[in-house]
Specification:
CATH topology of the largest domain: Nucleotidyltransferase, domain 5
Number of domains: 2
CATH architecture of the largest domain: 2-Layer Sandwich
Shape: globular
CATH superfamily of the largest domain: ATPase, nucleotide binding domain
Distance between the termini: 29 Å
Helix content: 40-55%
Bound molecules: 5'-O-[(R)-(carboxyoxy)(hydroxy)phosphoryl]adenosine, zinc ion
Number of helices: 11
Structural class: alpha/beta
Strand order of the largest sheet: 3-2-1-4-5
Strand content: 15-25%
């Protein structure tokens, strides 16, 4: 069979990314132009600045992805693009580029769900991995426990009632003066701290064993910082980072592995930006080992936003016959498992 070469585009937040992926699993190029330094001075992503930067970068990034893959549009089978969830202005830049290419070349267009892309990153990092499995999806905007029944088939069994895990990392990092993006900075600082120094709370939601709530632990950190400041005591930031991180990753790992056990899955897959977190990986490994479950997570470059994951998810859509029209629109609050 002829290989399926997908040119994938991802612009849902502050990374302008393009990639060429063959048959969903082989990466020929992975170009990511990060805007992090641009947004750092504002303490977070400024949507208007993000979309303007995407406009500037999108063509060079796509050209570079083709060049590194050693391909022209003639070699490409289909064009894939993230259409949601994400920042609407950012999504529209990637979508307009993808639609223009599809129209000009006559190649099929495939819209991809950003979060489903995050899960698919694991298929690239682990060529042996196949659904079904239990999955924890943790990013700046999402914290879900999901049963991945098949490629592109999801059932949500746990969700956050307030902040996403990554959002909590970013907010706590700001409060202790680490700046944006907070997750990697807390991860690094926590290595110098004692994770049992401060007992931050772990929220349980009645009758929803796989749901999360992170606003309580975030407020507890803010209260702790205030209380120490009022008492004139010096705060040990590394201890705060380590204790906060422990409270979050303990809950994430324990609930995911408990869900896998209850539903009888022997594979647990974590994905999204927070899947980079070293303490989460360690904790999840520890719990999985105890239950004889195999744990998967992508390599760090495929955990945070990239277009490889979009090219991978698109391949499985492509072989199922999914094709989109040029009327494909951005859906900023697209839900997991929801179709366009
Ligand atoms: O998946 P992603 O790149 O973008 C979204 O789709 O949201 O995730 C970004 C999030 C940010 O909140 C960032 O702080 C968090 O992932 N993150 C981390 C780490 N690396 C990135 N959180 C904890 N530890 C990390 N090492
Ligand atoms: Zn993401």
């Amino acid at each position: 069979m002829k290989p399926v070469n997908i040119l994938a585009i991802e612009t849902s937040c502050d990374e302008t990314a393009a990639a060429v992926v063959v048959n969903g699993r082989t990466v020929l190029s992975n170009i990511i132009s990060s805007q992090v330094p641009l947004h750092t001075m504002y303490g977070g992503v400024v949507p208007e600045i993000a979309s303007r930067k995407h406009v500037e970068k999108i063509c060079p990034v796509i050209n570079e992805a083709l060049k590194q893959a050693g391909m022209t549009y003639d070699d490409i089978t289909a064009i894939a693009v993230t259409y949601g969830p994400g920042l609407v202005g950012s999504l529209l830049v990637g979508l307009s580029a993808a639609k223009s290419i599809a129209y000009a070349t006559g190649k099929p267009l495939i819209g991809v769900h950003h979060i489903e892309g995050h899960v698919a990153a694991n298929y690239v990092s682990h060529p042996d991995l196949e659904p079904p499995f239990m999955s924890l999806i943790v990013s700046g905007g999402h914290s879900h426990i999901v049963i991945v029944k098949d490629y592109g088939e999801f059932e949500i069994i746990g969700r956050t009632h307030d902040d996403a895990a990554g959002e909590a990392f970013d907010k706590v990092a700001r409060a202790i003066g680490l700046g944006y993006p907070g997750g990697p900075k807390i991860d690094k600082l926590a290595r110098e701290g004692n994770c049992n120094a401060i007992a931050f709370p772990r929220a349980h939601i009645e009758d929803c064993p796989y749901d999360f709530s992170f606003s309580g632990v975030k407020s507890a950190v803010l209260n702790y910082l205030n209380q120490e400041q009022m008492a004139g005591r010096e705060v040990n930031k590394a201890d705060v980072a380590a204790s906060f991180q422990e409270a979050v990753v303990d809950v994430l790992a324990a609930r995911t592995v408990a869900a896998a056990k209850e539903y009888g899955f022997k594979q647990v897959v974590i994905s999204g930006g927070v899947a980079c977190n070293s303490a989460l990986r360690y904790k999840a490994q520890e719990f999985c080992d105890k239950e004889g479950i195999k744990l998967y997570y992508p390599e760090p470059i495929l955990c945070t936003d990239n277009a490889v994951m979009i090219g991978c998810a698109a391949y499985y859509e492509y072989i199922r016959g999914v094709r989109d029209g040029l009327d494909l629109n951005a859906i900023p609050n697209l839900k997991i498992g929801e179709r366009k």
